[in-house]
UniProtKB/TrEMBL annotation:
Record domain Tetrahydrofolate dehydrogenase/cyclohydrolase catalytic: where: 6-120
UniProt keyword terms in alphabetical order: Amino-acid biosynthesis, Histidine biosynthesis, Hydrolase, Methionine biosynthesis, Multifunctional enzyme, NADP, One-carbon metabolism, Oxidoreductase, Purine biosynthesis
Function as written in the Swiss-Prot or TrEMBL entry: Catalyzes the oxidation of 5,10-methylenetetrahydrofolate to 5,10-methenyltetrahydrofolate and then the hydrolysis of 5,10-methenyltetrahydrofolate to 10-formyltetrahydrofolate.
Protein name: Bifunctional protein FolD
Gene name per UniProt: folD
Family indicated by similarity: Belongs to the tetrahydrofolate dehydrogenase/cyclohydrolase family.
Domain Tetrahydrofolate dehydrogenase/cyclohydrolase NAD(P)-binding: 139-280
Length: 285
C-alpha cells in the first residue's frame, strides 16, 4: 500500500490561520507582532525567500520590516543595525537572510541578535536552551518537521528515529527535538559507513543532507514515517528532495513530498516563533 502523504501546505494553512487569530487578538491588546528581515547582497534565491517571508507576515497581520543593503555593506554597519533593532520595541523577531557576503562573519551576526528576538533559533544560547530542554526558540525547519510528524498522530515515544545529517540548523536540533519527544535517536552523516543498516531499523527517518536519492526504497522499514528536508534538482531541473520519492513511497507508511512538505512549514514556524516572542513581551507567553 503506497504511503500516505503528509501535506505541508495544508498543515501550514491550518497553523497560520491560528497564528493570524492570535496575532489579531494580541494587536487589539496593544502589541502587534513585528519581524525585521535583513537582506545583504543580490543572491537571487535569498530575494525569493525574503519576499515569501514578508508576504507571510503581511498575511498573518504582523508588522514587518524589510531592509535591503548592498553587498558592500560592512560587517560593522550590519552589526550596528542589528543592535538598533534589538532595542526597537516594535520588533519581536530579527532574521538576517543567509548567505552573507564573504567579508561578513555569519557567526558574529547571529550572535549579535538578542536571544529574545532570535526567532531563527540559531544562536549559541538558543542552541544551549534547546539542549537543556529550556523554553527557547526552536530552529524553524526542525520545529516544522516535528509538527508534520505530530499531524499524523504518530506517537514517537519509544520509537527509533534516524536523522541523516548533522548540520547546526537542521540535523542536530532535529535530533534533540526527537529526543525530547522520547524517541531513541541515531544521527547518521557522511562518515557513517553503512547508512542503510541504520535506516532499515528506523521507525522515523528525517533526511537532511542536501543530496538527492540519499534514501531509497530498499533502505526503509515498511510503514516508517519519512520526512524529506532536502531541496535539490533532478537531471531535468525539477525540484526534488533527498528521498527517492517513487521507491520510498511504496514502502513507507507516511512521507512528505518535495515540494509541498517541509518547505511551507519552515516559514510557518518562523511566524510562530515571532508570535511567541511578542506574547512574551505582552506577558502572555
Amino acid at each position: 500500500m503506497p504511503a500516505r502523504l503528509i501535506n505541508g501546505n495544508e498543515l501550514s494553512k491550518q497553523i497560520r490561520s491560528d497564528i493570524a487569530q492570535r496575532a489579531a487578538e494580541l494587536t487589539r491588546q496593544g502589541t502587534r507582532p513585528g519581524l525585521a528581515v535583513i537582506l545583504v547582497g543580490e543572491d537571487p534565491a535569498s530575494h525569493v525567500y525574503v519576499r515569501n517571508k514578508v508576504k507571510a507576515c503581511h498575511d498573518a497581520g504582523f508588522h514587518s520590516v524589510l531592509e535591503k543593503y548592498e553587498a558592500t555593506m560592512t560587517e560593522a554597519e550590519l552589526l550596528a543595525r542589528i543592535d538598533l533593532l534589538n532595542h526597537d520595541p516594535a520588533i519581536h523577531g530579527i532574521l538576517v537572510q543567509m548567505p552573507l557576503p564573504r567579508h561578513i562573519d555569519p557567526h558574529k551576526v547571529i550572535e549579535a541578535i538578542s536571544t529574545r528576538k532570535d526567532v531563527d533559533g540559531y544562536s549559541v544560547l538558543s542552541a544551549g536552551e534547546l539542549m537543556a530542554g529550556l523554553d527557547g526558540f526552536r530552529p524553524c525547519t526542525p520545529y516544522g518537521c516535528m509538527k508534520l510528524i505530530e499531524s499524523t498522530g504518530y506517537d514517537l515515544r519509544g520509537k527509533h528515529a534516524v536523522v541523516i545529517g548533522r548540520s547546526n540548523t537542521v540535523g542536530k536540533p532535529m535530533a534533540l527535538l526527537l529526543l525530547q519527544a522520547n524517541a531513541t535517536v541515531t544521527v547518521c552523516h557522511s562518515g557513517t559507513p553503512d547508512l542503510a543498516y541504520h535506516t532499515r531499523q528506523a521507525d522515523v527517518v528525517v533526511a537532511a543532507v542536501g543530496r538527492r536519492n540519499t534514501l531509497t526504497g530498499d533502505m526503509v522499514k515498511p510503514g516508517a514515517v519519512v520526512i524529506d528536508v532536502g531541496i535539490n534538482r533532478d537531471d531535468a531541473g525539477k525540484l526534488c528532495g533527498d528521498v527517492d520519492f517513487a521507491s520510498v513511497s511504496e514502502v513507507a507508511g507516511w512521507i512528505t513530498p518535495v515540494p509541498g512538505g517541509v518547505g511551507p512549514m519552515t516559514i510557518t514556524m518562523l511566524l510562530a516563533n515571532t508570535l511567541e516572542s511578542a506574547e512574551r513581551v505582552a506577558g502572555r507567553g
